[in-house]
Design a protein that fits this description.
Elements: H1 3-9, H2 24-35, E1 47-52, H3 54-64, E2 77-83, H4 97-114, E3 118-119, H5 127-134, E4 141-149, H6 156-166, H7 172-175
Antiparallel strand pairs: 1-2, 2-4, 3-4
Helix pairs in contact: 1-4, 2-4
Length: 185
C-alpha cells in the first residue's frame, strides 16, 4: 500500500476487531514506524508499553478504562503511549511533546492500516491506574492508546466500507487560505 492510500483508507474501526493474535513481526513493524516519527530537536519523547494477549489487554482495560470499552474489548494487542513532559520543555517554555506523540501515533495508525490491521486512538484510560498496574514511573504521563487487531470481516477494506461511506471532511476551501487569512484556496 502506498502512503497516500494508507492515509485515505485509515479509519477508526472500534467495533470490527477480531480476537485473532497478531504476529510479533507486524507489531514490531508498527513500533518501528512509530520510532521513526519526527520529533522536536529529535528528542523522541515517546515511550511505548505493549500489552499482548487478550487476557492481559482485558486486565488492563478492566483496571483503567474510564468509559466506553468497545474499541478495546476484543483486541489482542494494546499499545500505550507515555511521555515525561518535564524532559521536553524548551528554553522559551514551549513544549512540543504532544505534537511529537501525535506524529508517532499517526505512524502507528498508518502502519496498522498498511498491514491490514484495525486501530483506533483513544485517551479514555486512567493514567494513574495504568502507572500503578504496570509499574510506570511517577514522572511519566499517559497520553494515548490504540488497540490493534485483525478486522472481523475478511479484509480491512471490507471492515472499513461503512465507515468510509459515513466519513465527512471539510472542503479544503474551508481550511486553507492563500497568501493571507480569509483568501480561500
Amino acid at each position: 500500500m502506498e502512503t497516500l492510500e494508507a492515509i485515505s483508507k485509515r479509519a477508526s474501526l472500534k467495533t470490527h476487531i477480531s480476537t485473532r493474535d497478531i504476529e510479533d513481526d507486524k507489531v514490531t513493524k508498527i513500533l518501528e514506524a512509530a520510532r521513526l516519527a519526527p520529533s522536536a530537536t529529535n528528542e523522541q519523547p515517546w515511550r511505548f508499553v505493549v500489552i499482548k494477549g487478550k487476557e492481559n489487554v482485558e486486565n488492563v482495560i478492566t483496571g483503567a478504562a474510564r468509559m466506553d470499552r468497545k474499541a478495546f474489548d476484543e483486541a489482542p494487542v494494546l499499545i500505550l503511549v507515555f511521555v515525561n513532559p518535564k524532559d521536553y520543555v524548551f528554553p522559551d517554555g514551549k513544549t512540543f511533546y504532544l505534537l511529537d506523540i501525535g506524529l508517532a501515533t499517526e505512524n502507528i495508525l498508518l502502519a496498522a492500516t498498511d498491514l491490514g490491521l484495525v486501530s483506533h486512538p483513544m485517551a479514555s484510560l486512567d493514567g494513574d491506574k495504568l502507572k500503578e498496574m504496570l509499574d510506570i514511573p511517577d514522572e511519566m504521563e499517559f497520553v494515548i492508546a490504540t488497540p490493534l487487531g485483525y478486522p472481523l470481516e475478511g479484509s480491512y477494506e471490507e471492515a472499513a466500507q461503512e465507515r468510509w461511506r459515513e466519513r465527512t471532511r471539510k472542503d479544503l476551501k474551508e481550511l486553507v487560505y492563500v497568501n493571507k487569512w480569509g483568501t480561500p484556496l
